């Protein structure tokens, strides 16, 4: 029963998060934590599922013309090595969850209150600003074991970087490369014998199906405003859920 519940939960998370260009890593971590999985195991598991979802999502966004490579490269140039370094750093479970919770809440507020601007396709980005933002988010992503799209997306909305679906596609690719780099960094210190390969395969397959459905819905059905609002709500809920368990918040939160 626990495995069936996990599979269904992971499928649902992948379905929802992939529709806004995310992999769902933050929610995978929260759920695996609630199911009392070992700390280092749940971080590896979340990244594997993240990579599975955004791999399919990135392809679908690219196929539909939402990936603009010339605008993306400054963000990933520094973020990938920074994510690897972040993944190499050993961090305690308590510090990890507190950092993740506060950061998600901050990202949700940025997303919710960023105004709905009309994107100007002729607006040029500053490479130095882009590499700085990408590098900082990449390092934090490797540290907390998620891809970083939930950190990048609000900044891109505030900067009036492009249309919402283009931002979702960029976030998806950003998550993919940073998750791969973060996984590589964590794998150096990981004990392979702790990994439950049977459960990993089941969860990866479930998020693959959910991600394929969600990515197609996100490209074809969702409006830009709805994408932003769903993103903010999901991230905020996860942030408070994590802090609820680690800061003894009042019970009426959940």
Which term fits the overall shape? Answer: globular
Our count of domains comes out at: 1
Summarize the amount of helix as a percent range. Answer: over 70%
User: Low-confidence parts, pLDDT < 50 over ≥5 residues?
Assistant: 116-122
Q: Helix tally?
A: 10
Could you give a short account of the major beta sheet?
none
Strand content: under 5%
Explain what you see.
By secondary structure, this protein is an all-alpha fold. The chain has one domain. Helices cover 76% and strands 0% of the residues. It is globular, with a radius of gyration of 17 Å. The protein starts with a helix and ends in an 8-residue tail after the last helix.
Protein topology:
Blueprint: H1 2-18, H2 25-34, H3 39-63, H4 69-88, H5 93-113, H6 127-144, H7 149-158, H8 164-187, H9 197-220, H10 224-246
Helix pairs in contact: 1-2, 1-9, 2-3, 3-8, 3-9, 4-6, 4-8, 5-7, 5-10, 6-8, 7-8
Which descriptors apply to this entry?
mainly alpha; 10 helices
Please provide a brief summary of the model.
The chain is mainly alpha-helical.
